[in-house]
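Page 47, continued from p. 46.
Same chain as before, 88 aa.
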Amino acid sequence: MDAHLAAPHNIRGGQIRTYRGVALLRLGDVSVWFRAGKISWSTGELGTDGKPKTAALLLHETAQAAAKIAQHYRELRGHVGLHAVRIG
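Result:
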């Protein structure tokens, strides 16, 4: 994921944490989870239940996931009113 975010999208410096088979990549306000064969992230929208919506792709679709995550990361920078999932 680092290579897919760094070279084409110029996004670097994410923090990775692991716990019980789940890896979490923090990119500012964007959280990306790697678990159960999937890559998932917050879309920045709230569902009708008030909870953040997430998007997911399979682990072998890393380049496609990186493109969508990079787009979301850029949308969050400087935009107010989007709901990012924050952990911690």
